[in-house]
């Protein structure tokens, strides 16, 4: 019964979200005003086939990560999000786990910054949602799964990214991200996913393990970053870190000084988008 109710709820919520409100074009003939399955799949970062199986009741055990992604894509309020977890046979995340909920106000902020690269991370620095301009600047993150969506894992264990750092900047960045992750682990000691992330990083990265053993705590600050883009070349941008304290989120906003060469390159990226990008790995 719960599975049937889950499918009905997903379809009802999908029909409620207009493409425009989700930042998608409304072109083409539509049988309903809401999102198509393909659009929901793209927004949530899961396959269309899995959406179909969930709605038809043929998929019975979605993971908490899938449920969280669906809740964000469907723009559910806190009560609806909790109900979706229960329909999926899962306990809604409690205060002992890293929050992954995007408030309506954060979503509205993203909607209004369409011409600015913006990405939202949870406290553990796992990517929750990125706008198209961020994908154009850093590489499309929509295909990333699991720990590959985590900024710290990506830096220490993933392939090289697009951000250029001097040796001094690299040391400072690594020290700060590990110190922030340690602070987060202290706030959420019962979060099993976070514990697994730290264990894997310590087991596979000597550099991370060394920094973790230092015991430092702290947080990542706003900075200036140089991004080597495969199509438009190097861009030097301000990266401001905005913190949503109530939900423990980090919003990274990349901007250029008006009239600068970097601002012109960002404008070009807003036109080109991701269509000519050669790398899909975000930094």
Automatic annotation (TrEMBL):
Pfam family, one: HTH_31
InterPro entries associated with the record: Cro/C1-type_HTH, Lambda_DNA-bd_dom_sf, MLTR_LBD
SMART domains membership: HTH_XRE (SM00530)
Matching Gene3D superfamilies: 3.30.450.180, lambda repressor-like DNA-binding domains
Segments forming domain HTH cro/C1-type: 30-81
TM region(s), chain numbering: none
Protein name as catalogued: XRE family transcriptional regulator
